[in-house]
Write a structure and sequence with these properties.
This protein is mostly helical. It contains 15 helices and no strands. Helix 2 crosses helix 3.
């Protein structure tokens, strides 16, 4: 029989649980910067583990020295990136007229008028349609400059915390065996082997995935950059850089990047004749980006996503799309690493399950 005391106890229990959840969310929010540092350091550790292993096994270095050399290699790469890329991105973004919202709105309206004139010359009455749509009033012309500014601010913020990230990464690399030994003491003997095997496999697959992802982004960036240079697009470096970064988002990112590059190419060519210069150049850039995506989709992505995490391309596609519907862009980004973790855990703890056997046969 349900009494008032039982109901009151249930209400108090629910309030207590809700309070704990709210408190945890608040704490996570307050220390979000530290969590980002830890996550970044963890990813760098995964990327650095193969390098660390090479120094220890091939060069016969002790763990501390191998960790120092691995970290120095990271520092050299990051320093080289900053010296080569950041000044160029900064200088181009500062002079890039697209960072001026009023300028981009003005150029976009002029572009729309040129498109309307082009259609009229081909006996297509689009003037009334464009007026009815009133496209210029509906587009948020601050999107592109805001996006570029957010990207540059993110890079600057990361630069501020770079020392912290590298410091944490060093100890992750150097003392990961100590962390593992301490974790063993907290694990029940009956589950110890399964948990340790899971950790080793997750470390192996995620290391391959993040290294492959960096290589993929670099290849895509170079190909984008070459395409834009061939057709004489101003600020080719920063446009290629942004489109390559967008490639982190599976499937959707390349589409957004191609659309963005197409729009920027047309706006960059404002002042030239639409029919003889703007339109052909834009079509060539669009074709070039489609070729890059064909190469990436048929060579880079299958090698990285399928081979590195031992998953079928269709399986990855469905998981990424489902994660996108449920959790948005962030869900799409973390879908593949999370899928890998779940598959490894499933195989270790439920090896007899027929469904798990089907999805983990290559692990």
């Amino acid at each position: 029989m349900i009494t008032s005391k039982v109901i009151a106890a249930g209400i108090l229990k629910a309030i207590g649980l809700l309070s704990v959840i709210v408190l945890l969310v608040y704490i996570v929010y307050q220390i979000s910067t530290v969590l980002i540092y830890l996550l970044t350091a963890f990813i760098l550790t995964l990327i650095g583990n193969p390098i660390l292993s090479f120094f220890k096994k091939r060069l016969k270095l002790n763990n501390t020295l191998a960790s120092i050399l691995t970290l120095l290699l990271f520092v050299l790469v990051i320093t080289g990136f900053i010296m080569m890329f950041i000044p160029l991105i900064s200088s181009q973004s500062q002079s890039l007229s697209l960072l001026n919202t009023h300028e981009i709105e003005k150029n976009s309206i002029e572009l729309i008028n040129q498109i309307a004139l082009f259609l009229e010359n081909h006996n297509i009455n689009s003037t009334n349609l464009l007026k009815e749509i009133n496209l210029s009033s509906k587009i948020d012309f601050g999107f592109i400059p805001n996006f570029l500014n957010i990207l540059l601010e993110t890079l600057s913020s990361f630069g501020i915390g770079l020392a912290s990230v590298l410091f944490i990464t060093f100890f992750f690399l150097k003392d990961q065996n100590i962390f593992l030994e301490n974790a063993k003491k907290l694990i029940a003997n009956s589950q110890k082997d399964k948990i340790l095997n899971s950790i080793q496999k997750i470390n192996y697959f995620l290391s391959r995935y993040f290294i492959g992802l960096l290589i993929q982004l670099f290849i895509v960036f170079i190909l984008y950059f070459i395409v834009l240079l061939i057709f004489g697009i101003h600020y080719a470096f920063i446009i290629a850089f942004i489109c390559a970064i967008l490639n982190i988002i599976p499937y959707i990112g390349p589409i957004i990047g191609t659309f963005l590059a197409t729009v920027l190419t047309m706006i960059d060519s404002i002042g030239n004749d639409f029919q003889t210069e703007i339109l052909p150049t834009t079509i060539y850039v669009l074709i070039g980006f489609c070729i890059v995506q064909f190469i990436d989709n048929n060579i880079s992505q299958p090698l990285i996503f399928s081979k590195s995490v031992s998953s079928h391309p269709l399986e990855i596609f469905l998981v990424v799309i489902l994660s996108g519907f449920l959790f948005g862009i962030l869900g799409m980004i973390v879908a593949i690493p999370l899928l890998t973790v779940l598959k490894v855990i499933g195989k270790e703890f439920f090896p007899e399950n027929k469904i798990i056997q089907l999805f983990t046969r290559n692990i």
